[in-house]
Design goal:
heterodimer; A: 220 residues; mainly alpha; Helix Hairpins; 5 helices; disordered N terminus; B: 130 residues; alpha/beta; Rossmann fold; 5-stranded parallel β-sheet; 5 strands
């Protein structure tokens, strides 16, 4: 290998016509670059490194997807809890009001007759409470479904972990580049892709209606 | 058979998703369900008998959903079993492959309770609700 290059200060030099020394430096940089490039190619690292580096923007998109999905899930759960709580508070208020009236009646003794207004109000309250209870059930279902982000982001995280592992592996191999590595079989199995993080691609569907349409087109 | 008594096998490597599907199935009237974390575990349970419906993810370790579907369709005792794929795999080629492999339905995650109810009841009706 050539002697190491002298490091020159980074202060902006005044423009001047290239000297013979400059040409020499450029030439040596060019040589070094070529050597590094050839070494990488001979060792088969250039393809792997390119693959790993190429995976980085995809990993960034996937991290954005995770941030979006977890954010949406949190928002949905908090909103839904607000809705459910409002229903719960209304039922609670009704129970307090009617409960007090019925408690008074109960303490008035055996023969006490409930006033017609109280009976009507109680019947209306029960119908209202039932409707609210059904809505709360729906909210609980929504909260449960919002947890699907765990599956979807988990799949994406596994993929990003693989990219990081791959990059690490490539870089470690570069560090020990002086020792020729064993031949690495390019076992690039076609992998299942997981959740769609970029819905603008033509080869994927982005909702259930598109799945149904596709299957209908094919006669399924 | 009364559809409400059908026994479901939910296959997914994420326990969260298995619980979600199990809860949703219960809400829509199918309370009888068991779970498996991948195709290998699922196949072992299915071969034990007693199941009427499979809800399966695709992307799983050991044996993925496509392989599980293939094994089910190739098994004389299991080949008529309804299989609904519930998966994040949204590539058209995967959807077509599932249909050609003999899946009875395909739901892409994330999905709603309404979608699951619609697909399950359609498959139950088509299979004659036995």
């Amino acid at each position: 290998m050539d002697a190491p290059l002298a490091v020159t200060p980074a202060a902006a030099p005044a423009p001047h016509a290239p000297t013979e020394d400059d040409f020499d430096v450029f030439q040596r940089i060019g040589q070094l670059t070529r050597q590094l490039h050839d070494a990488l190619r001979e060792l088969g690292y250039d393809i792997h490194l390119r693959g790993s580096v190429g995976a980085l923007p995809d990993a960034r998109a996937r991290l954005d997807y995770i941030a979006r999905l977890t954010g949406e899930a949190a928002e949905k759960v908090l909103n839904t809890v607000d809705f459910a709580r409002a229903e719960q508070e209304a039922v609670d208020a009704g129970l307090d009001k009617l409960g007090a009236a019925w408690a008074d009646l109960a303490s008035a003794g055996e023969g006490a007759v409930p006033p017609p207004g109280l009976v009507r109000e109680t019947a209306a309250f029960m119908a209202d409470a039932k409707a609210r209870s059904i809505r709360v059930q729906g909210h609980l279902t929504d909260i449960m479904l919002a947890q699907d982000f765990h599956d979807l982001t988990g799949q994406v995280l596994r993929r990003i972990a693989n990219v990081a592992m791959d990059l690490e592996e490539q870089l470690v191999k570069l560090l020990v580049a002086s020792t020729p590595p064993d031949k690495r079989a390019a076992m690039q199995e076609a992998e299942l892709e997981g959740p769609v993080v970029d819905g603008t691609r033509a080869e994927v569907v982005t909702n259930q209606a598109q799945v149904d349409d596709l299957l209908a087109e094919l006669g399924f | 058979m009364n559809p409400a008594e059908m026994k479901f096998l939910i296959v997914d490597d994420f326990s969260t998703m298995r619980r979600i599907v199990r809860n949703l199935l219960k809400e829509i009237g199918y309370a009888n369900a068991d779970e498996a974390e991948d195709g290998v575990a699922a196949l072992a349970k299915l071969k034990g008998g007693g199941f009427d419906f499979v809800v399966s993810d695709i992307n799983m370790p050991n044996m993925n959903g496509f392989e599980l579907l293939g094994q089910i369709r190739a098994d004389a005792a299991l080949k008529e079993l309804p299989v609904l794929m519930v998966t994040a795999e949204a590539r058209k080629e995967d959807i077509v492959a599932a249909a050609q492999g003999g899946a009875n339905g395909y739901i892409v995650k994330p999905f709603t309770k309404g979608t699951l109810e619609e697909k399950v009841s359609k498959i139950v009706q088509r299979s004659g609700a036995k």
